[in-house]
Amino acid sequence: MNCAQQPPQHTAETTQESSGEFRRELGLLSSTMMVIGSMVGSGIFIVSADIARTVGSPALLLLVWLLTGLVTVCAALSYGELAGMMPQAGGQYVYLREAYSPLVGFLYGWTLFTVIQTGTIAAVAVAFAKFTAVVFPVVSTSNVLVSIGTFGISGGQLFAMASIVVLTLLNVRGVQSGKRVQDVVTLAKVAALAALVLLGLTVGWNHDVVATNFTGFWQGLSGGVQVSADGTQRSHLTGVALWAAVGTAMVGSLFSSDAWNNITFAAAEVKQPKRTIPLALALGTLTVTSIYLLANVVYLVTLPLEGSVSGGASVMDRGIQFATNDRVGVAAVEAIVGEANASVAALSMAVLIMISTFGCNNGVILAGARVYYAMSRDGLFFRQAGLLNRRGVPAWSLVAQCVWACALCLSGTYGDLLDYVVFAVLVFYILTIGGIIVLRFKRPEAERPIKAFGYPIVPVLYMVVASAICVDLLVLKPSFTYPGLLIVLTGIPVYWLWKRKIGTN
Fold first, then answer.
1. In this structure, are residues 24 and 118 in contact, taking their beta carbons and an 8 Å threshold?
2. Contact of 186 with 207, CB cutoff 8 Å
3. Separation in Å, CA 356 to CA 36, 54, 264, 352
4. How far apart are CA 489 and CA 22, in angstroms?
5. How far is 93 from 102, CA to CA, in rounded Å?
6. 472 found inside a domain
7. How does residue 493 score in pLDDT terms, banded at 50, 70 and 90?
8. Burial 464-479, CB ≥16 within 10 A → b, else e
9. Residue 60 placed within a domain
10. What is the span of the domain harbouring residue 295?
């Protein structure tokens, strides 16, 4: 039996919620705002410092972001075919189920609920709290309110949880509420980022910095920065070591560019989804890729790449590599407005990141619940998750997602968990892109309103590049990749338990 054609039916005894229907209220603008808003959080303002330390070159810093953008756009353009074929709630979960098997689809949904989506929500919420603390110190993560042994609860954790609850309640009220928040906040942060880029390329342009960073642009491949107790040591990177460093550095940029696929989860609420979703994916990922590249150009024209590991006295001494707490965005704004106005720089960037993370979480919260709904309709998740409330949204799924994300906020383990699943996320992307090829053979007669861009070259190119990054991570970061695989594999016994439950009902 094809799950997509005949999902398990709920009995007439279910609550009135089961009579609800999804409402197609997301047009092209809102769908594109969801792609952009879900992608842009706090990463672009922070991870360039770690990338700069890893690759040690202005050229390679931009190359890492460029490759990340190309990989992301290639994947998004390829997803257009799948979105057009299967414009159903659940998106990537449905694609994997139909291309391979219900088990593969479930493993993705399981990992999404346990770590990927909920861990992202927790991490972004805590980032929102950290930057809100610049304005209101009481919500700082260092402000511990309750301490029991090694376990503590801070004002930042409580504020992060409160933000998750507020956004969940907004989305329980209907997709229209979530859409309004997403549109307004995303437009605001895109405008703010555009202003930052404009100011950086004009007012912030530092001729001495430009000369340092761009003279001998490609000859400056000094290698990654290895920090020791005695100071900074650099190793020259060539050949395989060079590309291995680039692949490792891409972990942060890939995570900062993730969540673009969330619009596919809400396909059942998109107007003309066969046309709108592919367009939104293309427009959204191209926009974010352009913003990210321009932001890094701003960093390189306002700050020297190389800095002092011992902690320089000024933003110029610290450079991009050793910006305070890796907050390159704050350092760039400080360089633009002058160090005498450092507090203004910190405050303005804090407000921008607050807006950015709030909008990011709204999109992630809205979309994720639709996957659990689809799993429930297939009999692979709690029955209540497959019900819609009177406003046409999976309220129970939203609440369950909220509870688990808040638990991760309290546990403080979300950061480690997200590090663990970056590898797994890439594997699922590779499988999904491969699903385009599989379905061309399995279902050649299926309607494909939009064909994958550059098929088969672009999808295969994506799979090759993403696979190379995965191999790189397996070799260089085994302590992160293997636990990620373990998290995915724990879903196998859970799947068979759900199947057994279905068989006994």
1. no
2. no
3. 10, 26, 21, 6
4. 32
5. 9
6. yes
7. very high
8. ebbeebbebbeeebee
9. yes
10. 24-504
Q: Output the CA–CA distances (angstroms, integers) from residue 282 to 70, 72, 79, 171, 447, in the order listed.
A: 12, 10, 10, 25, 20
- Check which CATH number belongs to the domain holding 465 and give it: 1.20.1740.10
Rounded to an integer, the average pLDDT of 120-130 is 90
- The stretch 96-123 carries a mean pLDDT of 93
Q: Which residue in 225, 349, 221 sits closest to 295, CA to CA?
A: 349
Q: Is the four-CA dihedral 207, 293, 350, 184 of positive or negative sign?
A: positive
Predicted confidence band of residue 12 (pLDDT cuts 50, 70, 90): very low
Q: Provide the Cα torsion 391, 394, 396, 399; round to 10°.
A: -90
- The region of weakest confidence among 165-179, 231-245, 267-281, 462-476 is 231-245
Mean pLDDT of 302-330: 83
In a domain, 235, yes or no: yes
Per-residue burial over 271-284, b = 16 or more CB atoms within 10 Å of its CB, e = otherwise: eebbbbbbbbbbbb
- State the pairing for strand pair 151-154/144-148: antiparallel
Alpha helices, DSSP H, located in 257-393 = 262-265, 273-302, 315-318, 328-337, 342-377
CA distance 270 to 263: 9
**Which DSSP state fits 238?**
-
d(CA 172, CA 160): 19
Write out the two tokens for 420.
């663990």
CA-derived radius of gyration, the chain: 23
Query: What was the pLDDT predicted at 153?
Result: 87
Beta-ladder partners of 270: 26
The 3-state DSSP class for residue 294 equals helix
Contact 29, 275 (CB under 8 A): no
392: nearest Cα among 176, 94, 165, 168: 176
Phi, psi dihedrals of residue 231, rounded to the nearest 5°: 140, -155
Long-range contacts of the stretch 249-253 (C-beta < 8 A, 24+)? 249/50, 249/51, 249/54, 249/55, 249/60, 249/64, 250/64, 250/67, 250/68, 250/469, 251/422, 251/473, 251/477, 252/43, 252/47, 252/50, 252/51, 253/43, 253/47, 253/51, 253/64, 253/65, 253/68, 253/292
Of 402, 386, 356, 429, residue with least CA distance to 191: 356
Residue 250: name the closest of 41, 40, 482, 469 by CA: 469
76 in Cβ contact with 259 (< 8 Å):
no
User: Cβ(226)–Cβ(234) under 8 Å?
Assistant: yes
Domain count, the chain: 1
Task: Name the pTM for this structure.
Answer: 0.86
> Of 329, 307, 325, 242, nearest to 54 (Cα)?
242
Q: Within a domain: residue 278?
A: yes
